[in-house]
TrEMBL record:
This is Primosome assembly protein PriA. GO terms for molecular function: peptidase activity. Residues 8-150 form the Prohead serine protease domain. GO terms for biological process: proteolysis. It comes from Sphingobium baderi. The keyword Hydrolase applies. InterPro entries: Peptidase_S78_dom, Prohead_protease. Keywords: Hydrolase, Protease, Viral release from host cell.
Length: 164
C-alpha cells in the first residue's frame, strides 16, 4: 500500500504503486513496473500539485523541491513544502490523517499500453505531475498518514521504512 508521510515541512510516500488496480471509466487500469523510467530519465519538469490544480503547486523537479525515485514498489516522492496556504492546508490534513491519497497526471505514448477486454496495463507513460488528493484518488492503493518524528533516529527509521 502506498502512503504519504509528513515530517516537519516535507511530505513523502508513493505516488504510483506498481501492479495496483484502479477502476476507471468502467474498466480496470494497472501501471506496470518501469512505466515511468523513460519519463524520469528525460529530465522533464514534473510538478507536485494539490488535486491536479496547476494553481496550487507544492514543488517541482526543476527546482529540486520535488524528488522522484523509481524502485521495485513504484514511484516514491519527497516534496519540500513551501510556506503557502495550499501547502499549510495539505500539511495540516496530512498530520490529522485526513488526506485521501495520491494521484498522477500522465499521457501514454503510442504503443505504451495494452488492452485485454476492459483491462488496461500501462507499460510506458509520460509523467506530467503528481497530486496530493484531498478526497478520493483513483488508485486506492495509496493512503495518507502523518507521523511526527521526535528525534533524528525516528526520522531515519521513517525514511528506511518508506523505501522497503
Amino acid at each position: 500500500m502506498g502512503e504519504v508521510r509528513a515530517e516537519s515541512r516535507t511530505l513523502s510516500g508513493y505516488a504510483i504503486v506498481y501492479g495496483a488496480e484502479a477502476r476507471i471509466n468502467g474498466g480496470l487500469e494497472t501501471i506496470a513496473a518501469g512505466a515511468v523510467s523513460e519519463s524520469l530519465a528525460s529530465g522533464r519538469d514534473i510538478l507536485a500539485l494539490v488535486d491536479h490544480d496547476a494553481s496550487r503547486v507544492l514543488g517541482r523537479t526543476k527546482s529540486g523541491t520535488l524528488r522522484l525515485v523509481e524502485d521495485a514498489r513504484g514511484l516514491a516522492f519527497t516534496i519540500d513544502l513551501p510556506d503557502t496556504s495550499a501547502a499549510r492546508d495539505v500539511l495540516a490534513l496530512a498530520e490529522r490523517g485526513d488526506l485521501g491519497g495520491m494521484s498522477f497526471g500522465f499521457s501514454v505514448p503510442a504503443g505504451g499500453d495494452e488492452w485485454r477486454g476492459n483491462k488496461r496495463t500501462v507499460r510506458k507513460l509520460a509523467l506530467h505531475e503528481i497530486s496530493v488528493i484531498a478526497s478520493h484518488p483513483a488508485y486506492t492503493s495509496t493512503s495518507v498518514e502523518a507521523r511526527a518524528a521526535s528525534n533524528e533516529l525516528e526520522l531515519l527509521r521513517l525514511r528506511l521504512e518508506l523505501y522497503r
